Amino acid sequence: MNFEDNIPINKLIVNLQNDSQNPQVILLTCGNYYPIHEFHIEIFEIAKKYLEEKNNYKIVLGYISPSSERKVNKKYPDKTISFNDRIEMIQKMTNKSSWIDITTWESLSPETKIDIPDYHQIIKNLSDFLDINDQVKQALNGRKLKIIYLFGLDEALKEERNGLNDLDGYEIAIIERYINSESKKENCEKYCKDKLKEMYKDIWEILKHQIIFINCDDNFEKSSRKVRELLKNNDEKWEDLCHPEVVKYIKENKIKF
């Protein structure tokens, strides 16, 4: 399977047609999207605003990289959302966006049938592809292209898929939203730093310079777990957490949990 089949660049090429000489930046995030919800898109918007205002970056694209069927099956052995359903719902949320897109290399490449790729493998694959793509090089016209890995705080604190190891050379943006009562009570950045310092004590002195902490003032849980829980309990509040097109898709396809 060709990279071109899995990494669409149409939106990227259009958005690179800008006059800014600031670093051109792609945001990349991964997840199961079981199912996708509004906050998955909100974190892109929050990160874009922050990085353009505070770091003088020009954000030209956000890539959503859904996990492979193998990984989702392992986590949810009794799953009810098929791979095609997950992809279809993500596309419904990104089709009308001028700068957020979906890349399915992680989901569909032959490599993922052998093993579940670590985060650094996903970002390196994307970087290698873009580095040699003639359309991208022409659109950049000599400017620098950076890829920043975007994590929600909950994902950043997980050690699965090798965690934040081997991401040297790449900036990491962490959206600080509270994930439990402990993180809510105190300064969220301090909470995150203390946790990460403990998890990555051998490389923390290097890692801490790669991380950008971005505050998010949400005060209630927005997660796929919450959507599934509400759906399972026939609580219509789940609709408030999902895009109208995703709500429509779940209802029309009678997806249950």
TrEMBL record:
Cytidyltransferase-like domain: residues covered: 28-148
One Pfam entry name: CTP_transf_like
Record-annotated membrane-spanning stretches: none
Alphabetical list of InterPro entries matching this protein: Cyt_trans-like, Euk_NMN_adenylyltrnsfrase, Rossmann-like_a/b/a_fold
SUPFAM superfamilies per UniProt: Nucleotidylyl transferase (SSF52374)
Annotated PANTHER family: NICOTINAMIDE MONONUCLEOTIDE ADENYLYLTRANSFERASE (PTHR12039), NICOTINAMIDE-NUCLEOTIDE ADENYLYLTRANSFERASE (PTHR12039:SF0)
Listed name of the protein: 38148_t:CDS:1
Source organism of the structure: Gigaspora margarita
